[in-house]
Amino acid sequence: GTPSYWTRVLFSTNTQPGAALLPFNFSTAAATGFRAPYASSLPLSNTVPNVSLSVSRAASGDVIVKLVNTNTYPLALDYTVAGWPGGSAGSVELSTITSSDGSVEAQNSFGSPRNVSIVDSTLTPGNTITIDASSINVIRLSKT
């Protein structure tokens, strides 16, 4: 599939009827050492260029963060979830769309059909997640 196709697949499988948008507090530390506080009610792009996000709570209680980082550097996100013990998740699933060479110009072809695709990973629960440069991400945080 094309990069646009994989984006639609990723976002559509992580959009649920009745999900509620949430305020979400976190900070970022880019490879350059930049760190600043944010809340999802403010446009993230006002403080860190080329980043967009939305946060919602699914009917299951999972918190779903959709984040696009078009910067050429990765971001380390420090987060807390209000009302959860320690503000941390019990499990963290990360689905990322990025190219194998890290280029925002990358495409799939018959010779390289998975150059741009979804990569799923399970992360160690905590309060920091690293987001790849030039990537589209869905982070699913569960209490258990």
How would you sum up this structure, described in words?
There is one protein chain. This protein is mainly beta and 144 residues long. The strands form two sheets. The chain has a six-stranded antiparallel beta sheet with strand order 1-4-5-10-7-8, with helices on one face. A four-stranded antiparallel beta sheet has the order 3-2-6-9, with no helix packed on it. The longest helix is centred in the first third of the chain and has 10 residues. The N and C termini lie far apart (33 Å).
Outline:
With 144 residues, the chain is mainly beta.
Total helical elements? 1
Rounded to the nearest angstrom, the distance between the terminal CA atoms is 33 Å
The order of strands across the largest sheet is 1-4-5-10-7-8
Estimate what percentage of residues fall within beta strands: 35-45%
| Tally of strands | 10
Which SSEs are present, and which pair or pack?
Layout: H1 3-12, E1 20-21, E2 25-30, E3 35-39, E4 51-57, E5 63-69, E6 75-79, E7 91-99, E8 116-123, E9 128-131, E10 135-142
Antiparallel strand pairs: 1-4, 2-3, 2-6, 4-5, 5-10, 6-9, 7-8, 7-10
